[in-house]
Each structure stands twice: as structure tokens, then as C-alpha cells.
Amino acid sequence: MERTFIMIKPDGVQRGLIGEIISRFEKKGLQLLAGKFLQLDEEAAKKHYEEHEGKSFYDPLLEFVTSGPVFAMVWAGDNVIALTRAIIGKTDAVTAAPGTIRSDYAVHTNFNLVHGSDSVENAEREIPIYFSEHQIVSYEHTI
Ligand code: CMP
Fold first, then answer.
1. Of 24, 86, 92, 98, which is the most buried if we count CB atoms within 10 A?
2. What is the mean pLDDT of residues 115-142?
3. 115 is catalytic
């Protein structure tokens, strides 16, 4: 079963959107396997966003994701990566399609509420930064 890493960023937490964001994935029929409320330290943030090191938005991104608590999750399902990214919407809130989380609630690329892995490789690289395998449950999911 395909898995993805989803993280509600500090702006999503501050704005009280944890429930709304989880609800969209639940209603779609995706399966929640793990969830954790935590404050990211710089080391974990650097590991997570290593592919963006050197880009203009890298330092502000690290500062932002470590600025307050985040809600980290693992979701599963057929095509879960493509499905969650469709629900989240494009990185830039201006071009995110209407009805997506970022179109409905975000106004700025730097404060775009939620992260979703963009490939199987990145999902499987990101998940262990936040969860050990024994924290990820396995149960039958009938939809
Ligand atoms: P996220 O899905 O967490 O992945 C990288 C993050 O960097 C992205 O969401 C944005 O919050 C932030 N970011 C800021 N500017 C850009 C950009 N031009 N391209 C990609 N990501 C950006």
C-alpha cells in the first residue's frame, strides 16, 4: 500500500485548521496510519527540506516550520500521494485550484498550511524523520 507523509505546518495549527485538513483526507477515504503533534527542531527541519538547501526560500522555510508546533501524519491508500496532493493544491495559493486546501485557506507560498510528499521516494525518506515503524499502525481499512 502506498504511503505518504503529511504535515500541517505552524500556520495551519495556529489557524485552527487541523480538524478541517484531516477531515478532507478522511472523507476522501484515505487511511490514517500515524499522527503526532510536535515542535520541529532545526536538525529535523533541515533533514526534511534538504532538497531545497541553497534556494532563496530555504532559510525562511526553516525558520517558519520551526516557529511553532506542527501536526505530522502518515496516510495510506492507492495513489495516496497523487490524491493528497490534489486535495492540498499547488504550492502557490494563487494558482491552486478552487476547492483545494491551499486555494480555500492560504494566501502565500511561504505559508501554505500543509506539506504532502511529492513522490514515493520522498515519502519513504520523510516518514522516518518523524516516526519509527512501531508508531505506524496497520489495520484493515474498508471503504
Ligand atoms: P512544501 O510542500 O512544504 O515544500 C517546500 C516548501 O517551501 C513549500 O511547501 C513552500 O512552503 C515553500 N516555498 C516557498 N517558495 C517556494 C517555491 N518557489 N517553490 C517551492 N516551494 C516554495
1. 24
2. 97
3. yes
